[in-house]
Amino acid sequence: MQDAKSEVDRILTFPEEAEKPAISLLTTKKEVMLLVVSGSASERAVVEQAERVRDDLLSFEEITNVDLSANRPYEIGIEIKEETLRKYHLTLPQVARIVHASSIDLAGGKIRTEAGEVLIRTTEKRLTGSELDSVVVYSGPHGERVFLSDIAEVKDGFEDVDIESSFNNDQAVMVRVFRVGNQKPTEIAEIVRDYVDKRNLELPETVKINVFMDWSVVLKDRINLLLKNGLLGLVLVLIILTMFLEIRLAFWVSAGIAISFLGSMILLPWFNISINMMSLFAFLIILGIVVDDAIVVGENIYVHRRKFGKGFYMAAVDGTREMTKAVVFAGLTTIAAFAPLLFVGGFFGKMMGVIPIIVISVLILSLMESFFVLPAHLNGGVVKSKARIWDRIERKRSLFDRIIFWFIDNTYMKTLLWAQENRYLTVAISIAILLITIGVIGGGYIGFVFITDVDADQVTVSLKMPPGTPFDETKRVAESVLAVAVDLVKEYDKDREDGESNLKNTFTLYGAQITDDGPHGTSTTTASNLAQIYFQLDDIDERTVRTPVFAEAWREAVGEIPGVESLTFRSDIMQNSADMEIQLAHEDFDVLLAAVDELKQQIAAYPGTNEVSDSHTEGKEELRLTLKPEAQTLGITETDLAMQVRGAF
What CATH number should be reported for the domain holding residue 368? Predict the structure, then answer.
């Protein structure tokens, strides 16, 4: 950052009136939790409680970024009648300048004394309407003074913007908690949940803090999935190897999986990688691959000892040496398949680069464990145990051996001999199977998904009306869309045996939309033609309908709404962008718009496509004012006109 700042400071061609460039380091932040402060109290009471929640959370050392959303900014309103302005020969711009000059917080320099430097500062910032009441707006020649409270009605309130939010039909404000840098989401979520439980006990009945979304739960579920799959993999490997070989070999092969995983986790800090969604995904990918090395080496050692009658030491040495080349090249092949991801650039490359690092490190450790640790464990003799359970296992394994050898002698060998005698027919059958496989995949009978959608617990609906649409009309349409979902969910409630509802919470935002900006967090866009609905369903283990199924049924039930510019439904966790995006460019803007409309119609005609929209937004209607020539003879300037109109509206 310092290098960038130095380069910018060396630029001497900026205009004199330009502000000094601000250089800052971009910090990645991701949302951990979304709280909703709601209740039947007044808007000011709910906003004040939300601000208290934000300030309390920021007091924790582990939390550094908390934002409020879906709330109107504070505003001090000053209303003056026209007759009063004329009485004191004042204008609204004059009053505005007086108020601005009376509410400042400005440094005034410093005084050098023998004791040191003393800073000078004027701190007369007025933050409430009562503090502005004492501002003097007029002083007469005889010392009389007129205060702002004498000529105006000063009120503390909110900006007159078209934005409104509700949580289960109550006034609401969002509190968004983010993690920055290497902060742990699970640790932040635990602190926030503990605070919410304690704070709710102190709040009045008219206000409540609700945990609406908790992304740390998704991370915990992924960790539990990894542990569950790892445990099942170890158990299956142990059982299958015991059936084919022996329990001692099966145990040490299974232990190799745990050793490789633990070793790679020790290396993660060296690569600045933490346990997150992407790193856990990488562990899940490599889980089914890492066990192969130890199985191949261990099985070959077993063959040398049982089939060739070698001792434990020679069997371990010869069996490992014989499989070294094959196992190493198999590992290098897998490494070569994942290595290109290391060279992908941009944000996507930085995100996906975690996968090859983990996969390659686990494979290398698995190779080391297979060639050095596993043979050493299988080098020793077998300790005889007096426990009867091992005798039972050995008898079962011997029975399974006889079944396998019978299958080999009577079925597999006959099939193998037939394939050798009819080699051309065997090759033809293989090619036919390959062609059938390609046809099945190419024909769409077997689908392909690069990254499968993960069901969210909610459906997010974003509504966009034409620019300039009145706020009340946007709200009416959004409420009608929400009403369809409320009626629809009752149909799925009939399938629940416990009699509970599949609907958990609803959060509706009128006059604004919240979008995910990737590593930069979230942003809120406000406009009277926007609305957003968060329809949260019950937990996945309790609800009787999948989120994508409900979202599709909701979309079909709503249908086409006249006058709506776009209406999108999202039901998966990774819901940042559309499935397909096409960029068009042309020198003639009218030709470009015509091409966009034609392309949208063509795409919408294909079965299975929906929510076809474009990024073009028409501006609102605008009245432009221009002074008449005779106005200039009266000394009226464009600035006077603009300020007068601004004060009136």
Answer: 1.20.1640.10
